[in-house]
């Protein structure tokens, strides 16, 4: 019989995606203590079954498989940006495919906004309405609210509309970082990410007959099945070699191999792949610490996962990466670099974000120092003397000038121009690390 903890986990799994979950309700429905309910909900959160959001509560979400790790649910976005839900709570479990920076004209913005995307925009009520009608959620930056009819529309569409106090650049950087972190994690794939759950897997009991093996073989095309006792624990394995020439009415317990090779959900994909090749195994049971069957992992599961890893990018792209890739060297006699202001670099007003300005200053200084001193720059302090509004699509020229340089120390003056007009000036002090 399953423990109370396991019963709660199974109850949570049975709930529809989007349902709210409370400790008190779980304790009442399943007749368990609130402490037991709380621990089980935390375990469900660790398993990716639920997400807890401040001021909203705990929500049942869809468990993400590894191939979807570059996507986030709107519930996760709220936690990342410390946001507040203004409307559309019923859609918090949904997954966003991409996000769009709303720092352009409405018609241009709508060309990029599509269903299941997230529009990051400031206090532009018309943009909020258009995005929701296109099937996109909305993240309002700068701490702004929206109008009541927009909140009502979000509820009707079941699309979250979220408010955060951060500016657009910071929010985009935070979301990019979250995706980047998950892409790093995806390099280590575990059995729990790819296995077929027990309710979808074929298995035998000790009191089944060999005839039952033939039935499962015809339905699944597998030749290897786990054997379970009355508590769903794996006690053996039966393969085609075990049943050849045996009477069809012979009990499985008479032909099974005891103490079979099993794995747990935290076993790495690399280990399972190696073991399957080395041992010539087609299917391996996945068990918990009590040997209760959780599912199976097949050779097809492993091959599919390995192919998926090869198709995925090996690194994520942060805002700093975007700034770096968007910068080109143009100076001949003196160090100078150009960068175009693209939507990802703007704040809620559609002008160059302060955060991007410091990234541009740091990147240009780093490149100049690498060329002059053959060393890497570690920033200690940046003083921004002034920065003027720079609109989207502007072409900036960044000119770093080395004022002082020792063996391990450098002071760099940086000027930023837009069409030969000085729009920003900063002083950077840094340590130099030899390559």
TrEMBL record:
Cited SMART domains: CBS
Molecular-function GO terms, alphabetical: DNA binding; DNA-binding transcription factor activity
Keywords in alphabetical order: CBS domain, DNA-binding, Transcription, Transcription regulation
Family matches, as Pfam families: 4HBT (PF03061), CBS (PF00571), DRTGG (PF07085), GntR (PF00392)
Domain spans labelled CBS: 195-254, 256-314
PANTHER family xrefs: CBS DOMAIN-CONTAINING PROTEIN, CBS DOMAIN-CONTAINING PROTEIN CBSX3, MITOCHONDRIAL
Listed name of the protein: CBS domain-containing protein
Species, as recorded: Ornithinibacillus caprae
